[in-house]
């Protein structure tokens, strides 16, 4: 009872005449610092059963009860009422009334509440204030003044109220209708001067633990309803919520020194005058200027400064077109003359390749951060026009840089991603990338996202461009806090950027800064925005530029004077003029100066390969045996594997004894040997650890201990490089982009992405079309990523049959009509190509092509069509002999049987690739045509082995030439191979086709039709009269 009375006294509203000091005597006036422990209102927290996870649950319920007492079970309602009324710990709980509640029991249960006639009102007022505070925290951003134009459709209240100490409750009632949906919790005007205790879930009190309601409202307005809208209450971690509350609620926390204000002004001067300079000099050039969001430059610089202060020394950035040149100039500090000379159309390109427009190029720059005096490296990843496509690439590169410098927590390397409002909301890759953010093998330990939210996408309004109130709602799925900020308030922007950087360094989680701004010009400088947004642009014409507004503010505050301001402008204009003059001396454009990921040491100083040879990719017998033994064992003690897997390992062991490998073992040999040579290997994709077809088993799982795993590949050699094998999220676009980014960071790593089935690569088409295929041509950046694409017609239906080789082959840059004049096809042809496309028919060749990928003196993407049924095909085995020193990858595997012994007798040569070879040899044997028909396997499709196939064709002078494939005629390889084969033989003979007819789908859904089609193509392949009438 004593406790109840004390608490009731505490809760009783005080009149303003009772000073805050009096209250402070009851409760020490310690500053409200952030508390790590979970905090309820004191009486509830004291309950003995509230510990561990139950406290989370109870807390949720408590908040729900605060909003609506009827939303919880009656027993909890009584408990919370009693606890808040001051019941002693352990006594607040009353057992719930039984189903057949008798009146007497109910009245017993309600005894405590009823015994205190005033408590109801006290509790309700107290709860009303708590609910009010919570309402501001949850929904304050709905009424914050975020839009500099004042026209945003996201403004939930278009009549913002000016807050003064004389809070008018009538106005607030209207405001609170928006905030609380259900009205004002019974508080009225007479309560405004009553003093209320503040709950521990707010920091608005500063040093005070109780405040008059009027002041509570004023402070909440200041924290949540001005130029910053904080969206965070969906975060399900109390500690993180408290951290944010403290950052925005603590009175006076948003203070700037005069020095800081002057720095901010100087940064705005640079940002604004840079665009003006470009506009003056090249008024008709597209540059996707930053006008309307000039504050982006100080925003980014703040994030970088703060992160540098926290220990980060490498920042990797990705961004779209908007303001990119400005970021290069003023954030990354690319030499201005290098930027300006890009506007000179007369410049000749010095590098090989086709290049890219200036607002897509990347950059890498190391310098001293002037604010922290620490070294910082900044890299802006080159990107295509495809918005948001660079997001996962940036993440992958960041992960790799963290990996190579041992930064397991993201303390030294971080990423910043910039987005446009329309693209952030509209592009699914944003969602895929967010879902990588907290996965162990993909996390970069927090990304700072900055959205240039100019409230328009090209000509489309937000209400037509998204179904969510904000463009940033996608970030809520990963519990990232979102700071919306009016971009015309530079101090508010800098403040939230500081908080965002601190958030990242504290919690290592993603965070979003939403710069609500406008776009002063059209989509680009040539575009007329009044066609489609007339009213918006009338408003924009009236809008004072942010630099002018802020300069006037600082002049009025006496922080700078007019001459100082003008001098700052003149100083930067002069820098631009001088750089422009120097840029005229540039005669040649070097795209390699715009490389985002240089590989020092891998190339010569002028960027050339150190040699033009590739050593043998073979391996000595001992290493093959050793790797094979580890691959067929469990290299740790007391580890129980599944019985089925024991059998698989036993079979492997027997193969090793017999000096043979199947597909999985060949892959093991390639990986294991490269690891010994210090090459890091990373294999990523859906279910790659076991392998979709259960053939790989690179991660063993203890059958008795949960989550205990073993990766034998990491137990091979004493000082080996690490092997990373990771099941990915169910994404292709995001994960392939990520691995491409990972592969960018170092040439000394074999990075592989495996599709579950090859056809799934088409959901990552943008990464293939925009980065992998043309990356080097556009950005002089090499990349050795490997794509493993399971492919083959197995009667499994139209899906899962074809990895669409035709698409990759169509994008190869070798000329079908020209026989290359090269001394050395083996390496030189690879150097000239944009990517390598292979379909290996033997495990040994798969082994060699993986090793060649690293032993080559340059890097090219490698596309491998990998088998499914061949994984277990008894003939698809290779001997150690084919993998020993001196052996190498075979671009073409000639026929080695009777046909090759008497080549002049051969009537037909069947050229083929991949698994159909095994169908063809079986059929040839059955028909006893081994001396009549030669079968030549084209293992490397691109670059096309013109030299070897010429030899093959010449070897069989009397033979017809036939391309045979299991894919449909308009698919597979035929369209690619035919003209090249004809060039090889100088068009002396036709090249016939044996295969399925053209079709819309990659394969039939009917197994019987599949087999009929197969038999038909085999019939054509071995019917020596098949083409007679066509000749
Ligand atoms: C994937 C993709 N689709 C379409 C386009 C064409 N496009 C270029 S900019 C743009 C509007 C982008 O709007 P927003 O993301 O808001 O950026 P802003 O230009 O407003 O800064 C569009 C549709 C593109 N570049 N990429
Ligand atoms: Mg936009």
Describe the structure.
The protein has 1031 residues and is α/β, with parallel strands linked by helices. The strands form 7 sheets. The chain has an 8-stranded mixed sheet with strand order 3-10-11-9-8-4-7-6, sandwiched between helices. The chain has a 7-stranded mixed sheet with strand order 17-14-18-19-21-20-26, with helices on both faces. The chain has a 5-stranded mixed sheet with strand order 23-25-24-27-28, sandwiched between helices. It is globular and about 110 Å long. The structure holds thiamine diphosphate and magnesium ion (MG). The site of magnesium ion has 6 residues, from helix 17.
How is this structure best summarized?
This protein is of the alpha/beta class and 1031 residues long.
């Amino acid at each position: 009872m004593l406790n109840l009375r004390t608490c009731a006294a505490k809760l009783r509203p005080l009149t303003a005449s009772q000073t805050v000091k009096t209250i402070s005597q009851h409760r020490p006036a310690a500053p409200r610092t952030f508390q790590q422990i979970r905090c309820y209102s004191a009486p509830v927290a004291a309950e003995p059963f509230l510990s561990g996870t139950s406290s989370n649950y109870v807390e949720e319920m408590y908040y729900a009860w605060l909003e609506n007492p009827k939303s919880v079970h009656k027993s909890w309602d009584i408990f919370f009422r009693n606890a808040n009324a001051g019941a002693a710990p352990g006594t607040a709980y009353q057992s719930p009334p039984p189903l057949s509640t008798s009146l007497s029991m109910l009245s017993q249960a309600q005894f405590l509440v009823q015994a205190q006639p005033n408590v109801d009102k006290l509790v309700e007022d107290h709860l009303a204030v708590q609910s009010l505070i919570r309402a501001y925290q949850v929904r304050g951003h709905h009424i914050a003044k975020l839009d500099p134009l004042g026209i945003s459709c996201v403004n939930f209240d278009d009549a913002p109220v000016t807050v003064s100490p004389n809070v008018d409750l009538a106005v607030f009632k209207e405001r609170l209708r928006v905030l609380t949906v259900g009205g004002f919790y019974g508080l009225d005007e007479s309560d405004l001067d009553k003093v209320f205790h503040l709950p521990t879930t707010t920091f608005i009190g500063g040093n005070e633990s109780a405040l008059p309601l009027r002041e509570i409202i004023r402070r909440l307005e200041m924290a949540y309803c001005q130029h910053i809208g904080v969206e965070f209450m969906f975060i399900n971690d109390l500690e993180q919520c408290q951290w944010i509350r403290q950052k925005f609620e603590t009175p006076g926390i948003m203070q700037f020194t005069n020095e800081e204000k002057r720095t901010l002004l100087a940064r705005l001067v640079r940002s604004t005058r840079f665009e003006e300079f470009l506009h003056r000099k090249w008024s008709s050039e597209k540059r996707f200027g930053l006008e309307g969001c000039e504050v982006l430059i100080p925003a980014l610089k703040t994030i970088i400064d703060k992160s540098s202060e926290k220990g980060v020394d490498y920042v990797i950035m990705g961004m779209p077109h908007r303001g990119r040149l400005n970021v290069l100039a003023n954030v990354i500090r690319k030499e201005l003359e290098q930027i300006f000379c890009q506007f000179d159309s007369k410049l000749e390109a010095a590098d090989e390749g086709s290049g890219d427009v200036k607002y897509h190029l990347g950059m890498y720059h190391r310098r001293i951060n002037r604010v922290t005096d620490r070294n910082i490296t900044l890299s802006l990843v080159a990107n295509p026009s495809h918005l948001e496509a660079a997001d996962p690439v940036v993440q992958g590169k960041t992960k790799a840089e963290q990996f190579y410098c041992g930064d397991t927590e993201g303390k030294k390397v971080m990423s910043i991603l910039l987005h446009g409002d329309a693209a952030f909301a509209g592009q699914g890759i944003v969602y895929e990338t967010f879902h990588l953010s907290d996965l162990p093998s993909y996390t970069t330990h927090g990304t700072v996202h900055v959205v240039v939210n100019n409230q328009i996408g090209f000509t489309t309004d937000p209400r037509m461009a998204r179904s969510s109130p904000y463009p940033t709602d996608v970030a809520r799925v990963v519990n990232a806090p979102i700071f919306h900020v009016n971009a015309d308030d530079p101090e508010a922007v800098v403040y939230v950027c500081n908080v965002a950087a601190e958030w990242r360094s504290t919690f290592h989680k993603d965070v979003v800064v939403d710069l609500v701004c406008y776009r002063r010009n059209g989509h680009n400088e040539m575009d007329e925005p009044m066609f489609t947004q007339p009213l918006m642009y009338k408003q924009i014409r009236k809008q004072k530029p942010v630099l002018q507004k802020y300069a006037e503010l600082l002049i009025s505050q006496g922080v700078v004077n007019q001459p100082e301001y003008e001098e700052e402008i003149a100083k930067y204009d002069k820098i631009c003029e001088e750089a422009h003059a120097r840029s005229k001396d540039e005669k040649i454009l070097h795209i390699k100066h715009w490389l985002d990921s240089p590989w020092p040491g891998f190339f010569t100083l002028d960027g050339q390969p150190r040699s033009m040879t590739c050593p043998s990719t073979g391996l000595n017998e001992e290493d093959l045996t050793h790797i094979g033994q580890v691959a067929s064992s469990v290299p740790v003690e007391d580890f129980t594997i599944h019985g089925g897997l024991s059998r698989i390992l036993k079979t492997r062991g027997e193969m090793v004894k017999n000096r043979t490998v199947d597909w999985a073992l060949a892959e093991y040999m390639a990986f294991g040997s490269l690891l010994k040579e210090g090459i890091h290997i990373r294999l990523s994709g859906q279910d790659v650890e076991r392998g979709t077809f259960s053939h790989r088993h690179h991660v063993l799982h203890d059958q008795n201990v949960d989550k205990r795993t073993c990766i034998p590949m990491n137990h091979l050699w004493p000082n080996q490089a690490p092997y990373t094998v990771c099941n990915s999220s169910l994404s292709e676009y995001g994960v392939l982009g990520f691995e491409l980014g990972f592969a960018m960071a170092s040439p000394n790593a074999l990075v592989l992405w495996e599709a579950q089935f090859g056809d799934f690569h088409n959901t990552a088409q943008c990464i293939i079309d925009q980065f992998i295929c043309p990356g080097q041509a556009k950005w002089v950046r090499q990349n050795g990523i490997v794509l493993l694409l399971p492919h083959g017609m197995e009667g499994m239906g139209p899906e899962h049959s074809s990895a669409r080789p035709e698409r990759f082959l169509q994008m190869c840059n070798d000329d079908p009509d020209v026989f290359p004049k090269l001394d050395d096809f083996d390496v030189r042809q690879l150097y000239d190509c944009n990517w390598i496309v292979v379909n290996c028919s033997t495990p040994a060749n798969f082994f060699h092509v993986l090793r060649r990928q690293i032993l080559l003196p340059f890097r090219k993407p490698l596309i491998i069509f990998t088998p499914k049924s061949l994984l277990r095909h008894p003939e698809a085995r290779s001997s150690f002999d084919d993998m020993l020193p001196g052996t190498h990858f075979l671009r073409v595997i000639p026929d080695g049987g009777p046909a090759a012994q008497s080549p002049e007798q051969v009537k037909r040569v069947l050229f083929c690739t991949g698994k159909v070879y095994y169908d063809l040899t079986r059929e040839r044997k059955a028909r006893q045509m081994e001396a009549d028909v030669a079968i030549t396997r084209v293992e490397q499709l691109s670059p096309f082995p013109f030299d070897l196939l010429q030899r093959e064709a010449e070897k069989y002078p009397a033979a017809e030439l036939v391309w045979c494939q299991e894919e449909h005629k308009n698919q597979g390889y035929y369209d690619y191979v035919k003209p090249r084969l004809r060039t090889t033989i100088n068009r002396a003979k036709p090249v016939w086709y044996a295969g399925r007819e053209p079709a819309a789908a990659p394969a039939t859904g009917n197994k019987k039709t599949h087999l009929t089609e197969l038999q038909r193509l085999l019939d054509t392949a071995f019917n020596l009269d098949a083409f007679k009438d066509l000749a």
